[in-house]
UniProtKB/TrEMBL annotation:
<comment type="similarity">
    <text>Belongs to the TfdA dioxygenase family.</text>
</comment>
<keyword id="KW-0223">Dioxygenase</keyword>
<dbReference type="GO" id="GO:0005737">
    <property type="term" value="C:cytoplasm"/>
</dbReference>
<dbReference type="GO" id="GO:0046872">
    <property type="term" value="F:metal ion binding"/>
</dbReference>
<keyword id="KW-0408">Iron</keyword>
<dbReference type="GO" id="GO:0016706">
    <property type="term" value="F:2-oxoglutarate-dependent dioxygenase activity"/>
</dbReference>
<feature type="domain" description="TauD/TfdA-like">
    <location>
        <begin position="120"/>
        <end position="387"/>
    </location>
</feature>
<protein>
    <recommendedName>
        <fullName>TauD/TfdA-like domain-containing protein</fullName>
    </recommendedName>
</protein>
<keyword id="KW-0560">Oxidoreductase</keyword>
<keyword id="KW-0479">Metal-binding</keyword>
<dbReference type="InterPro" id="IPR042098">
    <property type="entry name" value="TauD-like_sf"/>
</dbReference>
<dbReference type="Pfam" id="PF02668">
    <property type="entry name" value="TauD"/>
</dbReference>
<dbReference type="InterPro" id="IPR051323">
    <property type="entry name" value="AtsK-like"/>
</dbReference>
<dbReference type="InterPro" id="IPR003819">
    <property type="entry name" value="TauD/TfdA-like"/>
</dbReference>
């Protein structure tokens, strides 16, 4: 089925003479002969499927995959079988679990992590830290626990110049996810490394976006990943192996700080409310298969408590929310629009990151929204791999405090 789907998706692009990105096998062999080291072993001498179609990864990506021993002879990327029905997706997370966040057992001073780093720099007051001089693939467990704590506190942490295989990225994600990462049921992934998904315009359907796409919405705008899951991702790790020379920055905003920007009275209104969240993709309803596809809906606290920092964070994003449970749509829209506006427009609680090839960003998906600046149209490729470490089922502890309350800065 996956094979059929790939062929169906690409069936209009079988003309290798006029297509750079979508190539048949003979074209890939030609391309690799021109641009890749001779030791590469992507393609078998004989193909079991004569019409197999490939997308050719960018050169940096090819080198990374080769170094990691990833075999893409059966195609790149790997497409899992897409679930057909809403009910299939809802069944994917029924084993609710006790999640122990590695950050809860970390040394608060993070001596093992900071002691091994050459430099640690906070990028703004509210969010973002860069660490220089460490390889993520070489961290010991103590350092990983401290990294989790740092990400929980600073919301996003960056590491440039990483030598990181998809497998090592997956392993770090499994550790941070207390044994579980998201194995996405339908998006493009690295072959043979389930759970390492691709952030690559060539497969994410973003070719239609242009400069004239004003204030992108939906998945193109500010969002939090996979909020429809029963226990959505916490630590999320994007490694960019190929980036344009200029453009394609990613921005994050702090949910701790967005919450702190609300008046004490408004915070009291929000505390204890539940949001209704939706999946990025629609699916058919098994009870009414001919109806238009619909999204999976899941209820979570609108303000959630972070299990490591114990801070309250607003858990809202414009792209993947339906409303607030129990409110009329107009009431819900009024409240959510204000939350989104504060969260998205307050530049003092945001960080903007300029990528270089081989950079990792690990963010806390529970307490942030993020978006990309799509300003690189036609000016270079952008390919990354993402691992989403699953976290706890979101909860709200009425005894928890905001970050500024905890720090005695409430005003
Ligand atoms: Fe995302």
């Amino acid at each position: 089925m996956a094979q059929n789907r790939r062929q169906k998706k690409l069936s209009g692009s079988m003309r290798c003479s006029d297509c750079v990105l979508l190539l048949c096998k003979s074209s890939v062999q030609e391309y690799l002969a021109r641009s890749a080291p001779s030791s590469l072993h992507y393609l078998p001498a004989m193909s079991p499927v004569a019409t197999e179609v490939f997308k050719t990864p960018p050169a940096n990506t090819l080198r990374r995959l080769e170094k990691a021993g990833i075999d893409i002879s059966q195609g790149y990327p790997y497409w899992p079988n897409k679930p057909e029905f809403v009910q299939d997706v809802e069944k994917l997370q029924t084993n609710l679990r006790e999640y122990v966040d590695p950050g809860t057992r970390a040394d608060p001073e993070k001596k093992a992590l900071f002691g091994a780093a050459k430099k640690v720099t906070d990028l703004s007051i509210h969010i973002g830290t860069e660490i220089v001089g460490l390889q993520l693939s070489e961290l010991n467990d103590k350092q990983k626990d401290e990294l989790a704590l740092l990400v929980a506190e600073r919301s996003v942490v960056f590491f440039r110049d990483q030598e990181l295989s998809p497998q090592a990225q997956r392993d770090l994600g499994v550790y941070l996810g207390d044994g579980e990462i998201e194995i996405h049921p339908q998006v493009a992934q690295v072959p043979s490394v389930p759970g390492v998904t691709l952030i690559w315009g060539e497969v994410n359907g973003r070719q239609a976006r242009t400069f004239r796409t004003a204030y992108p919405s939906g998945n193109y705008g500010w969002h939090t990943d996979l909020v429809h899951l029963a226990y959505p991702p916490g630590y999320t790790h994007l490694h960019q192996d190929t980036v344009p020379e200029n453009g394609g920055d990613t921005l994050w905003a702090s949910g701790y700080s967005a919450y702190d920007k609300f008046s004490p009275t408004f915070r009291k209104i929000l505390d204890g409310l539940n949001g209704i969240y939706k999946s990025a993709h629609p699916y058919k309803d098994v009870n009414d298969p001919s109806a238009p596809p619909r999204h999976v809906h899941t209820v979570h606290p609108l303000v959630r408590t972070h299990p490591v920092t114990k801070f309250k964070t607003v858990f809202a994003n414009r792209a993947l929310m339906v409303g607030i449970e129990g409110l009329d749509q107009a009431e819900s829209d009024a409240i959510l629009n204000h939350i989104h506006d504060v969260y998205e427009r307050s530049t003092d609680i945001q960080v903007r990151w300029k990528w270089t090839p081989g950079t990792s960003a690990i963010w806390d998906n529970r307490s942030t929204i993020h978006t990309v600046s799509f300003d690189y149209e036609g000016k270079g490729e952008r390919h990354g791999t993402r691992v989403s470490s699953l976290a706890e089922t979101p909860f709200f502890d009425p005894e928890s405090k905001s970050r500024r309350e905890t720090l005695g800065l409430d005003d």
